[in-house]
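A.,

Following up on our hallway conversation. Structure tokens first:
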């Protein structure tokens, strides 16, 4: 088609040739500038040229949006680009990519602590722990949620409202704003009000920040001195063990009396099990009946270091578990069975040694309230659940139990070369000392318990 000098009137009067999906008119004044007209009357300016022997066609825009003079200027620019050996389509794509990258970076820079914290919790729930190679416990995840909770909701146990988590005030901050100075100011306020919680929150914040650096969407956003600044570390409270977080020999009588007097036999047995065996609280809470061997008097506990460990089932604690087993295997009454049937449920014994009807996991999840009530009733100072584990290791010294024996029962990692490579104690050797420790505790508590005759002298296979 012959070239025509475009004018505004001609541009608006051009029509598509009959029977064609589009007709292109070429401008005589601007090299490569054309007007594409469709049968529906749509008009768009285009530019066409050749680059390295191939035809290049680019759409400039609609005639309605592009005045003729502006379209000619754009055509001249495109010709200059092609004359320079560049493809304007590639240039436009690069510009678009750069624009998208800038927009994405703006969005990335606006990410807040709350956004990254939620992503961190989701990752913790989805992946196994690199240390234990097992999924994190529900309680571990819940502890993280509490750290960032807004508070102000009704307590599930007890009266009043929940407190705001120590990390909550940081939630609105952009990651780029979490400087050492900002974190130091936050930590100073928290340490003054609740030093223990502040220290724990700082450790979780530190783990979170390290995780963020390994994530492409968060990497490079958090200032390098967020948790390592001297301003921050200087404010950290001592991580040493709390003075008094352990039962003394003379306190055993009132402690056992209060704990045995709890109305819930499951909680009572669980708390006594923590003191008599010295495990971590989760190890005892997650104990299943299949892991309790009443024939050979042993318990297999989940161990965060070795995966699992087998310890003796001492006589008194065995009697407590037998009572729980009988209750667990006793079906509910006829009326309750009918109510369950009406709801489409069937009764079956719980697989957990320490079951809980209100816990999502099915086993005890939060025994601290019951323990706190017991020690308050006994008039004892505050003792944590971990303090009961500490008490086992401390009180065992009264029986002159070898340190290695106590450590193996508690699941402590061997601290000496001989312990690590040359000690393979059978469970009978552990039982010899473990039974003595339990008997001594009961004697100090004034509990008259006669141990039945068991298979304790029968040699068992060595521990794995």
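Then the amino acids I'd put at each of the 464 positions:
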């Amino acid at each position: 088609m012959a070239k025509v000098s475009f004018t505004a009137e001609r541009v608006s009067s051009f029509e598509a040739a009959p029977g064609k999906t589009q007709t292109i008119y070429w401008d005589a004044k601007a090299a490569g500038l054309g007007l594409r007209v469709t049968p529906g009357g749509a008009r768009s300016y285009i530019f066409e040229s050749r680059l390295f022997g191939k035809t290049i066609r680019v759409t400039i825009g609609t005639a309605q949006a592009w005045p003729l003079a502006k379209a000619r200027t754009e055509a001249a620019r495109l010709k200059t680009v092609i004359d320079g050996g560049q493809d304007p389509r590639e240039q436009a794509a690069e510009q678009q990519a750069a624009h998208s990258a800038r927009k994405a970076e703006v969005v990335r820079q606006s990410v807040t602590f709350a956004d990254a914290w939620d992503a961190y919790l989701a990752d913790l729930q989805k992946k196994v722990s690199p240390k234990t190679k097992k999924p994190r416990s529900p309680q571990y995840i819940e502890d993280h949620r509490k750290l960032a909770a807004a508070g102000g909701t009704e307590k599930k146990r007890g009266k009043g409202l929940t407190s705001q988590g120590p990390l909550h005030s940081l939630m609105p901050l952009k990651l780029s704003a979490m400087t050492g100075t900002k974190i130091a100011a936050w930590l100073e306020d928290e340490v003054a009000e609740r030093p223990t919680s502040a220290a724990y929150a700082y450790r979780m914040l530190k783990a979170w920040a390290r995780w963020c650096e390994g994530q492409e969407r968060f990497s490079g956003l958090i200032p390098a001195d967020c948790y390592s600044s001297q301003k921050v570390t200087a404010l950290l409270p001592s991580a040493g063990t709390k003075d008094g977080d352990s039962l003394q020999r003379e306190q055993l009588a009132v402690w056992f009396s209060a704990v045995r007097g709890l109305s819930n036999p499951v909680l009572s047995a669980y708390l006594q099990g923590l003191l008599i065996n010295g495990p971590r609280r989760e190890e005892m809470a997650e104990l299943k009946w299949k892991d309790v061997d009443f024939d050979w008097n042993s318990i297999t506990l989940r161990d965060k270091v070795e995966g699992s460990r087998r310890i003796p089932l001492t006589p008194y604690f065995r009697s407590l578990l037998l009572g729980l087993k009988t209750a667990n295997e006793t079906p509910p009454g006829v009326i309750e069975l009918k109510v369950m049937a009406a709801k489409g449920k069937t009764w079956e014994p719980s697989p957990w040694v320490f079951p809980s009807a209100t816990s999502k996991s099915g086993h005890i999840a939060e025994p601290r309230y019951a323990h706190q009530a017991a020690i308050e009733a006994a008039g004892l100072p505050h003792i944590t659940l971990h303090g009961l584990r500490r008490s086992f290791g401390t009180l065992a010294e009264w029986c002159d139990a070898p340190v290695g024996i106590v450590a193996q029962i508690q699941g402590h990692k061997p601290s000496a070369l001989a312990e690590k490579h040359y000690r393979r104690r059978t469970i009978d050797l552990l039982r010899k000392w473990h039974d003595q420790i339990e008997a001594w505790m009961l004697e100090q508590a004034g509990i008259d318990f006669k141990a039945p005759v068991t298979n304790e002298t029968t040699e068992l296979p060595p521990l794995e």
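The first strand starts at residue 23 and ends at 26. Curious whether your intuition agrees with the design.

B.
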